[in-house]
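User: Before I run my own analysis I want an independent prediction to cross-check against. Here's the chain; please return only the structure tokens and, at the end, one sentence I can use as a sanity check.
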Amino acid sequence: MSLSLSRPKDGNFAALEINFGPGISAIFGDSGIGKTHLLQQIAGLRPLPKGSQLAFKQQVWQTPHQNLASHQRNVGMVFQDSELFPHLSVLDNIRFAKSFKQDCLSQSELEALLKKLGIMPEWLDRHTDLLSGGQRQRVAIARTLFAKPQLLLLDEAVSSLDKNARREILQTVLDYHETYQCPVIFVTHQLEEVAFLADDLILLDETGNLHRHGNAIQLSSELDSGLCHQEDSGAIIIGQYDHALTDFQLAVLDIAGQPIYIPHLDQTLGANIRLHIAARDISITRHKPQQSSILNCLDVNISGIQAYDAFAMIKLSFADQSLIARITLKSLHDLQLNVGERVFAQVKSIALMR
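Assistant: Structure tokens:
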């Protein structure tokens, strides 16, 4: 395990015991339950309560008898509001770690990072108060990654950005993780970010207690995880790039022996492609449509049904993967759907993650 935490209950914050994996872990839950507080405790910016234990890889950070200072942990943390140094230029902000740390990115690595983050050369001599909110956030992330942290913590670091900017920065984080084998823990309220980035998912309940912890792909389609009640709920699935339909600018993925059509991609044949399919974008029919403008239709089995309010969440399984569909209770009644039955899932929209 990359990081293990044992925290007794402390004031308004719940007791937690979590073993974070070596990949990218998402912490998901309601506002005000202590997610930011938890990240700050891991970074050493806030004290953990007495009796806590925290270890990263082979290094003990805290026990009841010792506490490693924040500057000794080599943790990089990006806050929601960027927290740049106002008296320094953009470049001096980014290179700040060089004043106290030798092992930072090289000049060529830094130039590549700035390009990925969309930080323009003309920004570098500016003072940070001349930057927009989105520009400031890119600079804050560049500053953190320049220092080559051994653990990266992101506190809703892209929540203020537009969709394209979020995607660019999340891809940069993913590339950094894969290049430097740096574990990442990020707090988010956006299931799209979970679908794009997360290997593991930590779900906290409304009081801050641990509700579920597991593989993000599996939890995304679990009806009892609590995620399915989110407006943008949906399942993460993995397809393999099978072939291209160049005349139609489409790529065909193989998912458990069934085809999925998506817009053309620049990937090698056989590559694994991660997709997110929203529950609201799936309709269910008992018979396979013969003529329809909806290209994607999967042969599935109903493996779970959960009713809430005016809706029913239907878990649809095929081979070792699953989708979830949100339909009305009237549709559930009219179609007389039951667990174990074979149906067809028409997929109206698919989001390509990576």
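Sanity check: The helical segments are 35-43, 90-94, 107-117, 133-146, 163-180, 191-197, 216-219, 329-335.
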